[in-house]
Amino acid sequence: MSVMHEFTKGLWQDLPPFRLVLGLCPTLAVTSSANNGLGMGAAVIFVLVLSNMLISMVRGIIPKKVRIACFIVIAASLVVAVELLMQAYAYPLYQQLGIFVPLIVVNCIILARAEAFAAKNGVAASVADGLGIGLGFTLSLTFLGSLREILGNGTWFGMPVMWEGFEPFRIMVQAPGAFICLGLILAGMNVINVWQARRKGLREPDPVGCSGCGCCSLDKKD
Amino acid sequence: MEIFQLFIAAIFVNNIVLAQYLGNCPYLGCSKEKSVALGMGGAVIFVIVVSTLCTWLMQRYVLAPYGLGYLQTIVFIVVIASLVQFVEMFLKKMVPPLYAALGIFLPLITTNCAVMGLAILVQREEYDLMTSLLYGLASGMGFTLALLLMAGIRERLDTCRLPKALAGTPIALIMAGLMSLAFMGFKGMAQ
Fold it and tell me: Does B173 touch chain A (CB under 8 A)?
C-alpha cells in the first residue's frame, strides 16, 4: 500500500517540475520537441531509480558529513553509464540532447530525492519513489515538448498535426517560448491547486515555487 | 578582435541563462534582491573561472593522454565539488572580507549546472586554455547581468498587483522569456 503511494505521488501530488519545481534547466532546454522530452525523461528515470536504490542500500554505511559527496559520485557513475548506453543505442538522441545528458548529474531532482527520500527510506519504497517521480518528470517533459512542438513547428513527434496553412509560432521552439510556456503552466498549476483546496475545504496552498526543492540549503543541514 | 567577439557573444548572444538554459535554479532562487543577485553573480564568476582552469588542465593532462575521456562527467563533478569546498575554506582563512561577501553562495554552486555545463562546453568546442578562461569569465558576466536585470525587475514587481496565480515563480519565468526575447535582438552582432 505505502509503496504504491510512493509511486503515485510522483504522478500528481509531487509532480516535477510543475508542482515540485526542480530540474528546470533540462526542462527548458530539451523540450523543443516531444521526442527530446521523452528521451530526456527516460534517461532521468534510469538514473533516478538506480541512484535511489543504491543510496537507500548504502544509507547505513555513509557517514553523515560526506553524504552529499557520496550521492554525487553515485549519480555521476550512473550518468556515465547512461551516456555510454545512449552513445551505443540512441546516438541521434544523444546528439540532440547535447550537454544536458552529462548535466543530469547536477539535476536537482536526483540530489533532492536522494536527500529527502532515499537516505531515509527502504529499498522498495525508494525505487517506487524514483520510478514515480521519474515517470512524472517524463510525462511533464513530454507534455511541455508536445505543446511547444505543436505550436512552434506544427508537428507532434515529427508528424504534421495542424491544419493546412497553419503558420507556426517559431518563437515557441526557441528559448523565449520555453520560459513563457513553463511560466504559464506553473500559473495554471496554481489555479488548479487553489481550486482543489477550496473544493475539499482545505487551507489555500502555497504557490508553487523553487523553494520546495531544498537543494540550495542542502549543505547547511549538516 | 576574435577574443572581443567571443566575449560579446558569450555575454549577449549566447547568454548562459537566456539562450543556453543553464543555471536556472539560482536565476530564479537568488533574484529577489539586487544585493543577493550581485553576491551570487560574483561567486559564480569566480568559481566558473577557477573550475574551467582546473577541469581544462584535468582533461588535457590526465583524461586525454590515458584515454579516459568517458570518465569526463564523473571526474568533472568531483573536481568542481571539491574545488568549491576548497575555495570556501581558503577564502574563510585568507580573505575574510571576500568570504563575508560570497561565502553563503558558495555551497549552492556545486549543483549549479552553469559551472559544470561550461566545463563540458569548452571541451566540446575544443577551445584552448586562454579562450576557455575568457569564455568562462564572459559567461559568468552574462549570468550576473541576467541575474541583476531580473532582480531589478522583481523588486519592482513586488509593488505591482499581480493575479495571485502568477505571483512568484510563474511571473519570473515569463519575465525571463521576455528578457530572452529581447536578448535575441543581439543575434547577428557576433557569432
Answer: yes
A171 in any annotated domain: no
Is B170 inside any structural domain?
yes
For residue A70, which amino acid is it? C
Task: Give how far the C-alpha of residue B27 lies from the chain's centroid of Cα atoms, to the nearest Å.
Answer: 9
**Alpha helices, DSSP H only, in chain A?**
2-9, 24-29, 34-58, 67-89, 91-97, 108-113, 123-153, 175-199
Does B77 contact A106 at a Cβ distance shorter than 8 Å?
Answer: yes
What per-residue confidence (pLDDT) applies to B113? 85
Who among A72, A102, A177 is closest to B81 (CB)?
Answer: A72
Number of Cβ within a 10 Å radius of residue A217:
11
Instruction: Tell me how many domains chain A contains.
Output: 1
- Domain range for B42 is 2-186
Structural domain range at position A119: 2-141+207-221
Mean pLDDT to the nearest integer, A62-89: 91
Query: What pLDDT is recorded for position A221?
Result: 43
> How many cross-chain Cβ pairs, A to B, lie less than 8 Å apart?
152
Q: How many domains does chain B contain in total? A: 1
With CB atoms and an 8 Å threshold, state whether B120 touches A103: yes
C-alpha cell at B30: 537568488
- Listed in sequence order, the residues at least 6 apart from A204 whose beta carbon sits closer than 8 Å to its beta carbon are A194, A197, A198
Asked if the structure places residue B191 within a domain, the reply is no
Amino acid at B116: M
Chain A positions in Cβ-Cβ contact with residue B174 (cut-off 8 Å): 179-180, 183-184
Q: Directed axis angle between helix B129-157 and helix B169-183, to 10°?
A: 130
Q: Which of residues 54-93 of B touch A (CB under 8 A)?
A: 70-74, 76-78, 81
Tell me if B173 and A77 make a contact (CB, 8 A cut-off). Answer: no
Among A69, A80, A106, select the one facing B116 at the smallest CB separation: A106
Q: Is residue A37 part of a domain?
A: yes
* A154-178 mean pLDDT: 88
Residue A160 has a CB neighbour count (10 Å cut-off) of: 12
pLDDT digits (tens, 9 = 90+) for B90-99: 888 988 888 8
The stretches in chain B having pLDDT less than 50 are none
Q: Quick check: A189 and A197 in contact, CB under 8 A?
A: no
pLDDT at res. A161: 86
pLDDT at B136: 95
> What's residue B108's pLDDT?
74
